[in-house]
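Inverse folding, one chain.
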């Protein structure tokens, strides 16, 4: 079995008249945390949405676990064991935290049927989810909503977790909590693909990294190597880690 759980080969995406992705090549190694970096407008979110089938690739191939998923619909892709947390988190504000979690637990029709052992594991990762279990999700803070969004994505076992900018707008203490949670998720065997703008967040978490610019991956390698090469950081991102 390939060491790469997810592979994109020459992926192009058009949205209306706009050509957004121009031949993206990306590999996500199994069991590792891959960071997808790049300036605003580089195509990172479009790449995630194309992987999930929310936008269809107009050219190229996307494979997951060796299976071609390029033309599959989003529900089919999710059933393969891929969870996606979009940048806007997708929280149902009028529902309680419990109801949001139950919606994602496809094998449960009531909270009593949810996997209790898995819930307790999630509560240890994100104590706020348990604390506000019966509260309307719309009344949570930004950091608490992000914790709920990730918790909802992992309420059932997933092979791959894709998250778009998990640290955006969060306080430093919440970011540290999120980093610890992702580290524990990785240790549990979940493969993770993160889009991130917080470079410290990326440096602390990433095993591998891909940098996008103008709809292409222009650099791929180890996160450690990029974090130690200031000239490369300036060239790719216009900043120093």
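Residues assigned per position:
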């Amino acid at each position: 079995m390939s060491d790469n759980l997810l592979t994109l080969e020459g992926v192009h995406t058009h949205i209306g008249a706009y050509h957004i992705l121009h031949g993206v090549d990306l590999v996500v190694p199994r069991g590792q945390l891959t960071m997808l970096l790049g300036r605003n407008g580089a195509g990172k979110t479009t790449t995630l949405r194309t992987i999930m089938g929310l936008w269809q690739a107009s050219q190229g191939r996307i494979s997951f676990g060796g299976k071609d998923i390029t033309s599959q619909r989003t529900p089919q892709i999710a059933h393969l064991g891929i969870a996606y947390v979009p940048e806007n988190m997708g929280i149902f504000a009028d529902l309680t935290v419990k109801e949001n979690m139950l919606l994602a637990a496809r094998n449960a029709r009531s909270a009593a049927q949810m996997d209790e052992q898995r819930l307790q594991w999630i509560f240890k990762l994100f104590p706020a989810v348990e604390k506000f279990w019966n509260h309307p999700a719309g009344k949570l803070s930004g950091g608490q909503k992000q914790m709920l969004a990730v918790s909802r994505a992992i309420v059932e076992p997933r092979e791959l977790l894709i998250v778009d900018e998990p640290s955006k707008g969060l306080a430093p203490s919440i970011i540290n909590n999120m980093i610890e949670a992702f580290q524990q998720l990785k240790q549990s065997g979940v493969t993770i693909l993160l889009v991130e703008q917080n470079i410290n967040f990326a440096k602390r978490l990433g095993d591998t990294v891909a940098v996008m610019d103008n709809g292409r991956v222009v650099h791929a390698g180890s996160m450690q190597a990029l974090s130690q090469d200031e000239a490369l950081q300036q060239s790719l991102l216009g900043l120093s880690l």
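Residues 172-187 form the longest helix (16 residues). The mean pLDDT is 92.
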